[in-house]
Amino acid sequence: MDRNEPDTDEARGDDVYQPTHSDVDNRPTDALDPDNAILTDPLEDMASPGYSPPERPRGVTRYGTTQREQREGESLDDRLAQEVPEAQPPEGDSIGDLPGGAGEPVDEQAGTTRAGRLAQVDTPRETGNRTVARDVGPDDWAAPAEEAAMHVDTGADATVDESGPSGWREEPGTER
Predict the structure, then answer these.
(1) What are φ and ψ of residue 13, in 5° steps?
(2) SS3 label, residue 120
(3) Residue 115 CB coordination number (10 Å)
């Protein structure tokens, strides 16, 4: 057994993790690239980006820098005057603002009235390959994405039940 290799039965603590061979033979022999060397002084390269301090410290003229101002607190009017209003979108850039709905993200075949909770039809009719459900109204005004994507199809072959809830636009507790 080599003198540097500890006996595995008697190895304890740091002896277990000591390397068995030196890496002296594997060191690079060519010159280091000065661009990748850490030993260069960063002040030698004046073109390197750095920090440019402002002309004067920030916040010096703001309210609350003195102890008296901090104790008294800032008035609500002064605090509201510092707020920046949200930028309004340009005219004609939001949903529902174009005449006739031109260019709007609405599918004409799907309809515009959102359906509420969908329930299975009690007496299934012969509808071919179509799945039919009835609208039972909104449920606490929250719907999963699958139900939110459903719309009332008023142009369907079946007759529309006018006595039931018609969707999300109806307030709860109102009757038709």
Answers:
(1) 60, -130
(2) strand
(3) 24
Other C-beta atoms lying within 10 Å of the C-beta of residue 114 = 19
Tokens, residue 35: 């661009």
Distance CA 159, CA 156 (A): 7
pTM over 0.85: no
CB 136 within 8 A of CB 118: yes
The per-residue b/e assignment along 71-106, b for 16 or more CB within 10 angstroms, e otherwise, is eeeeeeeeeeeeeeeeeeeeeeeeeeeeeeeeeeee
pLDDT per residue as tens digits for the range 150-160: 777 666 544 44
Q: What share of the chain is helix, strand, coil (3-state, %, to 5)?
A: 15, 5, 80
Which single residue is written with the structure tokens 């179509």?
130
Tell me the sheet residues that pair with 114: 151
> In what helix (H) or strand (E) does residue 135 lie, and over which residues does it extend?
strand 133-135
pLDDT per 10-residue tile (average), the chain, 176 residues: 59 63 66 66 62 79 88 91 82 65 63 72 65 72 72 56 43 45
Q: Which residues face 46 on adjacent strands?
A: none
Residue with tokens 């709905």: 101
b/e burial code for range 130-159 (CB count within 10 A of at least 16 → b): eeeeebeebeeeebeeebeebbbeeeeeee
In what helix (H) or strand (E) does residue 72 lie, and over which residues does it extend?
A: helix 67-72
φ, ψ of residue 119 to 5 degrees: the values are -130, 155
